[in-house]
Structure formats: structure tokens, C-alpha cells
């Protein structure tokens, strides 16, 4: 049983290894046919595709952003994998770097998503079941399920990356219509040092796409026009073959320089050379786009190379020795592009500040130190997961991303899902109360047209009656433990869970 579970987890994780490889340019200026009226297109709502920094800044005043992303399921071994590169680091303002996790839901442990979000990282959409050219319900269902089972506010899930980077013009149109702020599936495939480079700073689609014109139908020549919707290109690295030697995701898996075998030293060399080309030029962002499974050391049966792990840390050590280098999430990068303050003012730039909420009560709030065994194990055969927000009666799926909550066992009350007026760090899903009411945590989630037939849904359910927002279909409804009263005696619930975790502890330790 156990080994079968492991096998099920391993196969899909490894099958994603081919995500996002390119072999040559995916655009050209001819194919792009891009023109943008810079005098009409102004920040923060509009930005022309340009290789020059936003806001007319001199590159010397521009930070060198190093965008760090991870894709696919969130599991303890993937979080461990990311932490071995970021947890020990600091940005120039003394804060631990944040990153973006493009999350797909099969094999995802929802409680870890909650934790990762509360720690300040960005949670973004990578479809529910990891499909390219994604149908709308794969995109929208991900928001609904992450809101319900990981307690992520709808207003905080602003970005999308297509599985296999396989997207269409319709994907972009749907993202814009569903209230996303950006997509990050397109490739910048020509070195910044080449004439005609497509290494554009993030831009809005007021004048259409300027990347991937040769690869994706219906892009470029002014299409698709999606005012205010951003593309954050993924910037390839290039080995000694230059434009003919691109590397995009998990570059440490690729042989370099025309060789047939992987060589960490060769990878390090071209990563450094590409970084310097950005740093000494117009400082377009530099990206590390990762699948954490490939550098996991805590997953049975996967043996990541220590040499590769050391090489990646050596690269980051080296990059951080350069002045003005900041490791950021996509969301943080975009916040700066929309409001490009000079490098000298970055230490006090709010989106880059540390955000550690102060919670001194023991709630199931996503802060591991305070959880005290409160997550439920939802023991579905395909992929068991934990959640603080109550197990659904069946696995979430694109057809039903928000199944009703299971009847609680052991005399427990149903959990309260995140409401629209309280953000994740403050919400106690056991008692159904918000632990912060001061000005520092005032909050209201937004509605997005992601329900059946485009119906507006708002974050959580508890606020629905007073907000006047139309209710979704019945299968989406019964989510918030309607009418549940939090009458469980204090302390009883953790005691039950200690016993419960004793039973499942073995399973937990092998990193489901
Ligand atoms: Zn993926």
C-alpha cells in the first residue's frame, strides 16, 4: 500500500521533467510586428514591451532582480528542496527572499500551501491536474480549491503559468477575464546581447504579445489585446553556443555547449555569463525556474546530485555578491515594474519588506509552530493530503473543485473556510473567528468570475449572505460548515489529534 502510494507520487512528478524546454528563438521582430504608443501607455496600468528598464530609469539605478519560481505539486520534499537554496539567504534589506510557487493540485499537500503563503511566498496557478492548453475549468478550479482547502484569498492568486509552458491566445484572454494580473508562460529566447533580443521587461498586452510569435498561434501583430494584463517573460540562459544554446527551466538538467552529458561546471559558467550579460546591460530580470523534485534530497527513490545542489548555491552566493541583486517572487518583480523606484530607495519599498505576522494564539493558521496537529488528513487513495479547512467528501476536480465538507468525525465540528473579511494568517478555521481586527490587518477579499458559467465567486462563504454576491451551484456551496458552532472545549481537539497523528505518523514521515 505504502509503496504503491510512493509510486503514484513519483511517476507524475518525474513526467513533468520535460516542462518548458526550447531549442531556438521563439520570436523575431518581423513575426512580432509589435508597436506600442509609449506616450499613451503609462505605468502603472500600461507598459510597452521594451528591453529598457521601466520608468525611464538608468540601468545603474535599477536592481538586478533574480526571480525564483517553482512549479507543480507542493509537498514537504519540494518545500525542503526550495529551502536548501533560499532559507539561509537574505536580501539587501535583511529579509528572507520570497518566491513564487506555480501550484498544480494533484499530489499537493494543502496545509503546506497555507504555510508557504503565510511565510510570505506567492501562490500562483498551474492548473488543477497539470494540463497544457488548459480548459477554463482547470484554471478557475485551481483558485476555488486553493481558496477552500489552503485558505488562500482569491485576491492573492494573481499569476498563472501553463503546464509545459503550453498556452494559447485563448488562455491569455481567459486569464485576463478571470481577474488574473499576469501570465508567466512566455519565453524570452534571444540573448540580451543580440540585436532583436526578445528579453523584454514585463509588459501589458494593451498592444498584444511581443514574445513567442513563432511558437503560438494568434499572438503578436497586435494580438491578443488585453489592456492592463501583464506578461512576465521567462528569460532563457545561453551557453557558449549563444542563441543556439538556450536553457530555460531546470538548466542544471541540460548538457551544455553541444555536449551530450551534464556538467555542473559548464552549467555554472553559462549561468554566470548570462547573469552578467543582464547585470552589465539593461538589467532585465534573471530567472531561476525550477521543478523542486529534481533537487529534492528528502524524497525516497530520488537522489539529487549533491554536486548540482552545491553548484546552484555557489551560483546564488556569487550572484548575491553583486551590488543591487534582489531575489524575488514574480509578484514582487511586477510590483516594482509597476512602480519602479530607484535602487537607492529599495530598502524601504513596501512589496519587498519582510512580512511575518505576529500570532501568539494556537490556531490552525498556517504557521507551523502554532499548528499543534490541527490539520486533517484527507486520506484519498490517489493522493492523500492535509488541510486545516476540513476534508472534502471527494477529491477536488475541475468538474467539482469545491466538494462539500465531510461530516466531521470524532465529534468534531466542521471547519470554517476562510471568509472574505479575514486573511489567512489571522483566520482560525476551528473557531471561525478572525484573530486580528486592527488597522494592520484590515482586509476584504475580492470576487472573481470563476464560478459555473462565469458566476462571480468571492473568497470564502461566510461573508456571502451579507455581500449580496450570487451563490454558486449547490455542489460549490456547502463549504463553510454552515451554522457550525465552535463549542468544542479548548484543548480537547489537539488531544484528539495527537492520537490521530500517532496513527498516521509513519505515513507522514515518508513525505506524502
Ligand atoms: Zn508543471
UniProtKB/TrEMBL annotation:
CDD domains: CE4_CDA_like
Ranges where the record places region Disordered: 396-415
Signal peptide (residue range): 1-17
Protein name: Chitin deacetylase
Coiled coil: none
Entry's Gene Ontology BP terms: carbohydrate metabolic process
Zinc recorded as keyword: no
Alphabetical keyword list: Membrane, Signal, Transmembrane, Transmembrane helix
Superkingdom of origin organism: Eukaryota
The keyword Ligase is assigned to this record: no
Organism of derivation: Russula ochroleuca
Transmembrane segments: 492-510
Amino acid at each position: 500500500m505504502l509503496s504503491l502510494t510512493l509510486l503514484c507520487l513519483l511517476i507524475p512528478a518525474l513526467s513533468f521533467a520535460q516542462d518548458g524546454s526550447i531549442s531556438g528563438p521563439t520570436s523575431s521582430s518581423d513575426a512580432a510586428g509589435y508597436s506600442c504608443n509609449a506616450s499613451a501607455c503609462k505605468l502603472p496600468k500600461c507598459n510597452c514591451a521594451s528591453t529598457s528598464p521601466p520608468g525611464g530609469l538608468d540601468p545603474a539605478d535599477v536592481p538586478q532582480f533574480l526571480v525564483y519560481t517553482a512549479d507543480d505539486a507542493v509537498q514537504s520534499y519540494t518545500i525542503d528542496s526550495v529551502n536548501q537554496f533560499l532559507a539561509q539567504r537574505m536580501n539587501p534589506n535583511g529579509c528572507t527572499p520570497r518566491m513564487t510557487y506555480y501550484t498544480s493540485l494533484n499530489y499537493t499537500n494543502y496545509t503546506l500551501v497555507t504555510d508557504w503563503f503565510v511565510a510570505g511566498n506567492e501562490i500562483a496557478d498551474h492548473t488543477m491536474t497539470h494540463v497544457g492548453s488548459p480548459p477554463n475549468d482547470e484554471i478557475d478550479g485551481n483558485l476555488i480549491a486553493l481558496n477552500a482547502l489552503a485558505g488562500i484569498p482569491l485576491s492573492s492568486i494573481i499569476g498563472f503559468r501553463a503546464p509545459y509552458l503550453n498556452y494559447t491566445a485563448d488562455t491569455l484572454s481567459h486569464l485576463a477575464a478571470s481577474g488574473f494580473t499576469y501570465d508567466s508562460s512566455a519565453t524570452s529566447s534571444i540573448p540580451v546581447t543580440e540585436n532583436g533580443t526578445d528579453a523584454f521587461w514585463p509588459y501589458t498586452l494593451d498592444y498584444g504579445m511581443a514574445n513567442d510569435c513563432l511558437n503560438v498561434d494568434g499572438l503578436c501583430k497586435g494580438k491578443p489585446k488585453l489592456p492592463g494584463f501583464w506578461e512576465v517573460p521567462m528569460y532563457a540562459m545561453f551557453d557558449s553556443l549563444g542563441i543556439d544554446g538556450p536553457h530555460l527551466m531546470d538548466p542544471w538538467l541540460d548538457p551544455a555547449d553541444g555536449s551530450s552529458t551534464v556538467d555542473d561546471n559548464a552549467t555554472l559558467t553559462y549561468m554566470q555569463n548570462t547573469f552578467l550579460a543582464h547585470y552589465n546591460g539593461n538589467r532585465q530580470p534573471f530567472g531561476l525556474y525550477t521543478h523542486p523534485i529534481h533537487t529534492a534530497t528528502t524524497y525516497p527513490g530520488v537522489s539529487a546530485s549533491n554536486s548540482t545542489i552545491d553548484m546552484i548555491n555557489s551560483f546564488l552566493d556569487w550572484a548575491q555578491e553583486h551590488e543591487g541583486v534582489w531575489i524575488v517572487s514574480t509578484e514582487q518583480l511586477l510590483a516594482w515594474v509597476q512602480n519602479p523606484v530607484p535602487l537607492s530607495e529599495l530598502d524601504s519599498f513596501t512589496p519587498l519588506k519582510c512580512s511575518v505576522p505576529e500570532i501568539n494564539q494556537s490556531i490552525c493558521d498556517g504557521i507551523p509552530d502554532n499548528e499543534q496537529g490541527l490539520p486533517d488528513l484527507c486520506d484519498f487513495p490517489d493522493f492523500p493530503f492535509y488541510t486545516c479547512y476540513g476534508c472534502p467528501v471527494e477529491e477536488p476536480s475541475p468538474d467539482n473543485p469545491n466538494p462539500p465538507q465531510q461530516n466531521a468525525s470524532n465529534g468534531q465540528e466542521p471547519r470554517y473556510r476562510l471568509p472574505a473579511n479575514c486573511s489567512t494568517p489571522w483566520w482560525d478555521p476551528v473557531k471561525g473567528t478572525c484573530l486580528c481586527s486592527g488597522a494592520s490587518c484590515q482586509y476584504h477579499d475580492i470576487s472573481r468570475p470563476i464560478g459555473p458559467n462565469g458566476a462571480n465567486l468571492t473568497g470564502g462563504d461566510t461573508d456571502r449572505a451579507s455581500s449580496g454576491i450570487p451563490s454558486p451551484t449547490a455542489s460549490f456551496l456547502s463549504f463553510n460548515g454552515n451554522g457550525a458552532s465552535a463549542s468544542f472545549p479548548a484543548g480537547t481537539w489537539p488531544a484528539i489529534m495527537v492520537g490521530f497523528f500517532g496513527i498516521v505518523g509513519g505515513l507522514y514521515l515518508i513525505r506524502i
